[in-house]
Amino acid sequence: MRAADLVEPFPTIGIDDDAMDAARLMAEQRLVGVIVMDPDGRPHAILPGSQLLRMVVPPYIQADLALARVVDERHADLMCATLAGKRVRDVLPDEKISLAVVEPDATAMEIAALMTQSHTPLVAVLDGDRYVGAITASGLFRRLLAGTA
Amino acid sequence: MRAADLVEPFPTIGIDDDAMDAARLMAEQRLVGVIVMDPDGRPHAILPGSQLLRMVVPPYIQADLALARVVDERHADLMCATLAGKRVRDVLPDEKISLAVVEPDATAMEIAALMTQSHTPLVAVLDGDRYVGAITASGLFRRLLAGTA
């Protein structure tokens, strides 16, 4: 079983796209994170939902969580408004979360080992320079368990 | 907007359940991880898929990733067999990944701040001692974006 057999479509967002579109993508497709693509169409990093949420929590609340409890509800409803006008590159973490990349002929064991080492349930598949899709830990289990059934 | 309005069903697994069932749950429901429950029915920890994969990658491959490339394909097909007979508690990481917990009256801002601080896109909702479900970062975005639409 090789990466080419395991790969599935996985949504991406451009590094210069609107940060609000990244939030929409995660919301609509129930994603834990999205793959951020370089302007040249290669995977650049992972943007986790928890990182994007950091942008909608004001610094004074991050400094004192107790304040989150007393914040005006109307303010909370406007939380996502702070994403407007920001690009994806503006909301990426300072410490880049790299995305593991494999070629289509990578073995299932290789992919599992990569996910284990990177503590990330996502590996992108590149055929040369072309992004083909991604393999998730849950997708890998789905295929591995089908083999043992 | 409060936790009680935001909570959704989220699957759990018992700490003494079969580890293979945890893999099946992630596979079938396309989860990045599952919530592990104590025998008394309270959330104990998060079990990420990448951690469960660690169990199916032999130590000699973890030590030398290059070996993953040459491993016999038939072996790879049997990867999940190593989970058989193990319980969830046997596959939890040494360093417990705690699950943030909120009461039903927690505000959206409080939940966002908790996810931001814990770097986890998942918060469990407990009504007293009773597990009600969970809130995900993507679910939170879905509701917050609906408010700004």
From TrEMBL, chains A, B:
Q: Name one Pfam family in it.
A: CBS
Asked whether the UniProt record includes Heme among its keywords, one would answer: no
Query: Which InterPro entries does the annotation name?
Result: CBS_dom (IPR000644), CBS_dom_sf (IPR046342)
Segments forming domain CBS: 6-65, 94-149
Entry keyword annotation includes Membrane = no
Keyword list, A-Z = CBS domain
Record's SUPFAM superfamilies? CBS-domain pair (SSF54631)
| Protein name per the record | CBS domain-containing protein
Organism for this UniProt entry: Spongiactinospora gelatinilytica
Query: What does the organism's lineage look like at the top?
Result: Bacteria, Bacillati, Actinomycetota, Actinomycetes, Streptosporangiales
